[in-house]
Amino acid sequence: MKNLIIFLLFIPFLTSCGENNHNTYADDLISFEYPESFAILSEKDLDDFTTIHIDGPEKTSLVITITPELYQYDLHEYSDVMHQLLENKSKMGNHVVRKTKEISTTINGEEHPGITNYYSARSFLDKSKFQFSFYILYGPENTFIVQEERRDKYIKGHKDVVESIINSIELQGLNAGQLHTQSL
Questions:
Q1: Torsion over CA of 146, 32, 156 and 76, rounded to 10 degrees?
Q2: How do residues 34-90 score in pLDDT, each as one tens digit?
Q3: Alpha-carbon span 135 to 72, nearest angstrom
Q4: How far is residue 17 CA from its own chain's centroid?
Q5: Residue 97: pLDDT band with limits 50, 70, 90
Q6: Strand pairing of 129-138 and 177-183?
Q7: How far is CA 155 from CA 30, 128, 130, in A?
Q8: Are 158 and 128 in contact (CB under 8 A)?
């Protein structure tokens, strides 16, 4: 009986450990709390291009450049375009997994639908990973609201892996957006 009581007292500890072990990056997206500040992108803003910086390894940043050409797409088409920009399985040995989730949030009392994209890029060459995510919402007056998700501790990889992803994008010759590394 004494052993049973000790075991029952120990269960909450085991449960909490299990939760921590399964608290993956993808799981975090489900309960993600959106910050109050958003970058509202309009066509005027995009005249000079708009970049989203995500800190990467070895003093580099992953920079998503959103160009005016992206306005011809709706959110899901945009998501497909970004996936094309990232994925090149054969030429550079990279495999990119995308998870897309429908989202909505309230800004200034107005609800905005959108999508969240989570990307995980794995290099077949050295088995390293590079992970990041961002989300896009429909903004007022046909603008896009774009916000990166700052989870730097989940961004893993090496500079050459990031650059190989970039190179594979350049090989595809798609001009709807650009992805590149930038020194900090």
A1: -40
A2: 333 333 333 333 333 333 333 333 333 333 333 334 444 444 554 555 555 444 333
A3: 18
A4: 27
A5: low
A6: unpaired
A7: 18, 11, 6
A8: yes
